[in-house]
Write a structure and sequence with these properties.
With 277 residues, the protein is mostly helical. 77% of the residues lie in helices and 5% in strands.
Length: 277
């Protein structure tokens, strides 16, 4: 636990620093998210040793970088997605003796999940712009991470009933409930901070909408966590990597964000959290 807490104390200020710099140089957010996406994809492919097959690794990583660079162009997005899928199928056809369809499906799923999940954070930052964009970037990370932290500590202190023992033996029902409650209420502090420091008299934060979205996002973050845990178990690995001591790989840290960020983007269209005064 000490290693996990130390990594958190180092990682959180680093993430805040990148976000603050992004307020002055927005390209930094896109670059950081693109880099994280590539690392998540490589770790995901490594789970099945597909990272050693260049005909898979190159299309997946190149597509992820190009998507973050040109996602603002709708036509380019269509071309990139189509080109990516064609490249993978070409790899399978010309290397069918060493590359099977399940490998192709795995690479395609991992790549699209990572790209679309973390792209949602970049999209909200760019579309909302300014302090509002920063706010949505922060909550996209804060809600699933606070929910995960609440589940970890709540499960350690109160956990008695296993949530999904065959997928993730350490997760408990009590931890999940604690995580959902934390995901609903702790990020509201973010709203208060932004209201008094960044938004001032220009924007309002709808606390009810925020709580509802926090509830939904906390629930789906559990699905994200369990889904990637199931992938790890099916591949026979404990963690996707070791880049973050106590947490595992980058994908171990961003698995819930990949599921949560798109949901925040979608729900905010129906229940906007921040509105102009």
């Amino acid at each position: 636990m000490k290693v996990r807490l130390l990594s958190t104390f180092i990682g959180v200020p680093l993430a805040i620093g990148i976000i603050v710099l992004g307020a002055y140089f927005p390209i930094i957010i896109d670059i950081a998210l693109a880099a994280i996406t590539v690392m998540c994809i490589v770790e995901g492919l490594s789970a099945k040793k597909l990272n050693k097959k260049l005909t898979i690794l190159l299309p997946c990583t190149v597509f992820s970088v190009l998507f973050f660079l040109f996602y603002s162009y709708k036509a380019a997005c269509m071309v990139m997605v189509f080109g990516f899928i064609v490249a993978l199928y070409l790899a399978m056809v010309f290397n069918h003796e060493n590359l099977e369809f399940p490998d192709l499906s795995f690479a395609l799923t991992i790549t699209l999940m990572c790209v679309l999940g973390l792209w949602s954070v970049a999209y909200m930052f760019d579309v909302k712009q300014g302090a509002v964009g920063l706010f949505y970037t922060v909550i996209s990370l804060a809600i699933p991470w606070f929910a995960d932290g609440g589940a970890y500590f709540g499960g350690s202190a109160l956990g008695k009933h296993k949530l999904c023992p065959k997928i993730s033996p350490q997760k408990t029902v009590e931890g999940a409930v604690t995580g959902v409650i934390t995901g609903m209420f702790v990020p509201l502090i973010t709203g208060v901070i932004f209201t008094f420091i960044a938004f001032k008299d220009n924007y309002d934060v709808n606390s009810i909408h925020f709580a509802v979205i926090g509830l939904c996002v906390s629930l789906i973050s559990i699905l994200g966590d369990l889904s990637f845990s199931l992938i790890k178990r099916s591949c026979g690995i404990k963690d996707y990597g070791s880049i973050i001591p106590g947490h595992g790989g980058m994908l171990d840290r961003f698995d819930s964000v990949i599921f949560s960020a798109p949901l925040i983007m979608i729900l905010d269209m129906i229940l906007p959290i921040v509105t102009p005064k």
